[in-house]
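Re: [help] complex structure
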Amino acid sequence: MSLIPGTLPSGACYGTPQELLDLFAQYLAIPAFAVSSKVLYSAVSPSPNTDYVWVDTAGGDTPLLNLYNDATGGYEPFPFAGGVSSNERLISDKTEITTLDNFDLLLVGTLSGGSYSSLKKITFANAASQIPAGTITYPMLSTSATEADNVASRTAKAWVNFDGTTNVGGNCTIRADFNVSTVADNGTGDYTINFTSALPNANYVITGVCSLSNAFPSYSGSRIPYISAPAGIMSTSQVEIATGAGATNTGAGAATDVSYATVAIFD
Amino acid sequence: MSTKRIIYPNDKDGVTILTPSPNWKGTLEELAVKDVPAGKPYRIVDGSEIPSDRTFRNAWEYTE
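Output below.
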């Protein structure tokens, strides 16, 4: 099935929901759009001659593709002038709906023996403001091998802000985190960050900053957490870091506890 | 927010203190199984049992 961008299909438009989706994307001359988490009902054995396409455009504009009306034998804007017949219901989660958001595409099956033969709802947007809240989840982010298209690599896989000086009194040593199960205090200025979910590989990047050493508040040396690897641990499940302070650029440093340690990990 | 901590002897002749994330949804026992190195003994203690003076932090020892 093919369609020249910018033209409407002539006659009936047959195909599986995915084919119709591809056709629609081709018609709009857009390379691709994501299928959102609002897919309500996956197509089940779609019948080629009973799958219809409906597209609602913003604010009552002329629909790009219309719903096929069995009663009149042609494509018409929804709702039909004579009302929706029993065979052309737009349904959402098995409940008939009469209005559509301006970014909804419905692939609608027909009633067959009292049940809907197929239905697929795809929500997409042509502007950021139209993306429904909660529909873009991490698994939907692109992991393309092409750097410019890889969105997942731009997100932190884990991060944590913790106090490395206290374990007592009910103080929350971990102030905030993402994908961190525990912070291990191994000794003075020695911490292991354990990940809730393992990272894809151990070749990640760590970035971090910590507060001035409590023990050496006047020192101007290193205050950035450093990785303990290779002597320490840097694996898919945890990373060991250390904090310290040096008196001079060349002088000996010392491991020290810090009250603010902030670390983020990218992969 | 839990004030519990998990302690275990580490490989540096000291003791490690695990602080759970406030976002951890499981139990402390599950957390210990996950984050305490295999084969290490561990104890779940209240944070108040841990010394607040860290002057000799590296000299702390794990006791059963």
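The CA atoms of residues 18 and 35 of chain B lie 8 Å apart.
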